[in-house]
Every structure is written in structure tokens, then in C-alpha cells.
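--- STAGE predict ---
source: upstream dedup step, 1 unique chain passed
mode: sequence only
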Amino acid sequence: MPMRPFRRPGTSVSPCGNGTILAHRGLPSELRLKAGSHSRLGSYRLGSRSWYAVETALCARALTIGGGVSTARLQHTRGGSRGPACAWGIVMGVLLSLSLVVGWVVVRTDGVEWLWQPAWHVVVALAATGAGSFVLSWVFRLLFSRVARLDATPQDDKGLGARLRAVVVRHPVRSYLLLWSVVLLSWVPCLLAFWPGIFSYDLPMQTAEALSGRLTGHHPPFHTLLWGVCLALDGDLGGLRATTIYALMQMVVLASALAAVPWTLARHGGRAWVCVLALLLPVLNPVVHLFSINPTKDVLFAAALVMLLLRLYVLAVEGVRVLGRRSFWAGYCAIALACCLLRNNAVYALALAVPVSACMVGRTGWRRMLVLSLLSVALGLVASGVLYGVLDVVPGSVGEALSVPLQQLARVVRDDPDSLTAEQRKVLSAFLPVDQIGDLYTPRLADPVKGSFSAQGGQLAELLGVWVSLGASHPVTYLDAFLSLNVPYWYPLSSDNKASERVYVGVVVTGQDMADGASLGNDQYGFVRQSRIPWLLARYVDVATFDAFRGNPLLSVMFGLAFPFWFMFGCLGASVAAAKRRAALPFVPALAVWLTFTVGPASLMRYLLPLVCCYPIFLGTALQPWGTQEVRPKG
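--- STAGE serialize ---
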């Protein structure tokens, strides 16, 4: 498909012969350039400012024309500027250096007092942060500047990227089915290794709910219903067990989402090697293999989030005219609704993203984006409310949303019990076992304290009042509790799964492999592992326990819990430095989801799976040739 350059209103264009780009009115005729030349004269995008055309014309007249073909390389006023690249490089370097210094202290002391006690520690901390900021800022400035220059380089119309686009545009269905088949088949050996499937995480509790018909809001009711359907079909489909049926269903859904990533990137002008990486991520990443057959709600939520971010990627590439399509509104709302049904905190993440998304779209489309975002949040709330009412779902404990405040209160009780007044102790006793809460406190895991919480004994407003008053008198203790709980999410070197007091990937099957015998699943159905590929099972178990990565410094960081955030944040900086602010759109919901994780009860890899699946979208957005052309695929 020939690339169609965009011209701004008020300019005239004329063909220059065999395959030439159209030139703007006011430029000399000898500056009409070949389509394969490295030029931006014929690739203006709608919405650019009038002075940009004047600047381009002046720069073009200064070029030396020779050999009949010009190879002008004009930098985009936004993308080619060093200002955003330098600014984002400094921000990235300072934040990463600060996280390394503070994270090192928090992991070893479960607090931040070491940074200033004794006084000479202040000098050490400032020196380390300053040196790290200088080096890392320099590195990221170079990296972001390179991305900005890459934005000014158009893709070769005869290269691999052009051929990929041609295949995807001409054969959209067949190309998508081919990608989907490759991704799906790459996970089959993992399922055979863990045959008949995996029974772990929250599945024992969800099994009890599905069989009793008494659903709770602790787990998304929609996901529990899906698992209940699989239990009802246990043994009826050719003798397949419920775990196998669920794994096959989940593999199909997740493969459909992940196959759409390289397909969409190629269809909208993404760089060829990024499209290839987008295919290789689900095919070669063993963590994705393990989760593709793992019956946890986070996997289907990952598929929904990938599709949501792809919608925003299309909006960023094609512009605000996408907001005028009914199909875009319907698809976005449907995907956002799926996110809310599959993850309890998704509606809060979408709500956080509403104002930021509207600002990122720009002046011409912010109202429509605001309405679309609010409509998605409203649909999520209404659908959840209707589902809870129809199924008579028992609301989950409010303690699930109070992980951070409960941890902070427990730490105050443990470290300074004498500071509590009689009134404060009385209020806390109505919700928590004050005499035991200090012993229950675990810096990296809120479940022990949260499990002892009961909202039946008093007014929640009184508890929040005590929390505020103790926070005013113990700010450092509160900060220690908060950072200690979520440090694996942002400290790049806390890669060991033991940092979060949890296993890296849960792959336990009830029965002979379950140490505590986890109740109902085994009693009712007798799920027992019968691996078809035992040697491969051993390799996957090494991955699940993190043993496969622990001895390698590079792999331990890349597969660590903090890498998704820093990779996402780095790609965000590269995107904004090299393009318009609209390029930040795919990152907004992902960052909002990550923020909800930091106030959760634990740091788990399964929570981060949605962000891992979005790696190619982040990278594709950062390296999108924004200023070169805008591909308008048919269909």
C-alpha cells in the first residue's frame, strides 16, 4: 500500500512524476523529493503549526541539491529537539538513582532512618545519589536523543517494515490467524509439562465459592463463574479435567490479545524489528508460558489491558479523528468493562487515568476523550453493581483496601506502643488485636495483619481518625511501612522472589504436590499432576521458583518485579521526548494500574503480568516513526 503523506490545510500539492512525494506550495520545484529519500517535506501531519511550514521552507532553501535526488533530513521541531530528551533523561536518571539508594537501605533495614542516622550517612547518601544521577542522566539523555533522531528518519519503503505492513494490510485475517497460531502453539508444551493443569493461588477458595454458590467480592465474581463453568464440565469433554479446560480457554484468549500486538504495530507503521520482538515475547518468555495455563484472574485481565492499550496506541498514531468512530467507542468501552469485571481495582485505575488521558489527547479532542473515559468507568461501576445484585454477592472485606493503613498502624504499635493513648487503643481494639498486631506485622506482606482485621466492632471513621492522628506523630514510621511493603515494585535490585515473601510464580497442584493439602479442590476432584514431559516440568519449576534467573545479574533484573515499571517509565520518557504528548496515551492506564499495586497487600509477579504483556506496546510507542508518515490501513 503506498504511503499517503499528509498536507496541512491551505497548501497545494502536485505530483512530481514517478513515485514522488508532493511538495508544499511556496517551495521551489527543485525541492520536490523522491518518495524513498530521507525527507520530511511531504510528510506533514494534520495539526502542526503554521510556523513549522515556514521554518521547513527556510531550511529547505539552504540545502544543497545535487545528483537529481535530494536527501534532506530535517528534524521535527518537537521530536528532533534536544530539550525534551535532556529533560526526560535528567528526570529518569535522578529517579532511578534515588530508587537505587533508598531501595538499598529499605531492603536491608526495613526503613529509611539509615539515610540520616548517624549524620555522616547523609553525606554518603547524597554523594551516591548525585553520582548516580549524573551518570544515569547522561546515559538516558543520549538514549532519548537517539530516539528523537530516529523519529526524524523515515522507514525504507522497500524494507522489511514495508513488506510486513503490506502483508498485514492485504491479508489481515490470514496474517492475524498465523500470528495467533504461532503464539498458541508455543504454549502447548508447557501445558503438557504441567498436565492436567495448575491449581494454585486463589483457586481453592474460588472452588469453594463456585460449588456452594455463595460468591464473595474478595475475588471477581465473573472470574469465579468462569471457573465454575469449567468445574461443571470436568470430565465431560473427552475426559478433560477442569484445570485443562480452563487452561485451554485462557490460552486462546491470551493468545488472541498478544497476537494482536505485532499485527496492530505492523498495520500502523511500527518498526519491523519491534513487530518481531512483539511476537517473540509470548513465544520465548517462560514466565508468559507459565501464566498462560495458570488459572488466576490476572491472566485474563492482562489480555484485556493489552487490548485497551492497543486502542490507545491507535488513537495516538491516527489522531483525534479516531474518536469520531462509533466502533472505537464501542470497542474501548467493552474492553474497559472486561477489565473492571476481571480485576476489582481496575475501576479505580481507570478513574485515575480519566483526567490525564483527557489532557494527553490535546485541545481538539479532550472533551470526547473525557466523556469516553468517564463512560467506561461508569459502565464498570454499573456492571459490577448489577452483577453483585443478581448473584447476591457478599461484599469483600474493607480491609482489602486498607493494606497500607493497617501496616502503618501495626508498625506504630510494634515500634512505639507507649505512644498510644487509652482512647486510641480502645478504637484499635475494636478492629485489630492490639496485643498481637506487633508480632503479626511483616514488612513485605500485609496478609497477616489484614487477616486479623474485623470491621464489625466499630465505626470505620473512628479508625481512620486514629490513623491520621498517629500519622501526624509518626510520619517516618508511616513512610517506613509504606516503602517496606512495596519496595520490590520499584527497587531494581530486589529481584529475588523472597523479597516479597511469596513465590515467584505459583505452579502448585493440590494433592501430592501441595504441602498443606489445600482442601476442597483435591477432596472433590482429585487433581494430581501427571506430567507428559517431566524434564520440561523441571525446567519450568526452576523458572517458577526464580532459580533459573537468580545466578545471572542481567536476567535477575530483567525478570525482577521492578523491571516492568522502569521499562514502562523509560519508554514513556522516550515517547514524549520524541513525539507529541499524545504519545503518552498508552502509558496512562498502565501507570494507574501500577499505582494501585503499590497500595496492595503484597508484591507478586502475577500482578505485574499485565505490564509484562504490554512491553511491545511500550517499546512500539517509544520507537513509532511519528513524524514520518501516518499509515491509514483499509478495513
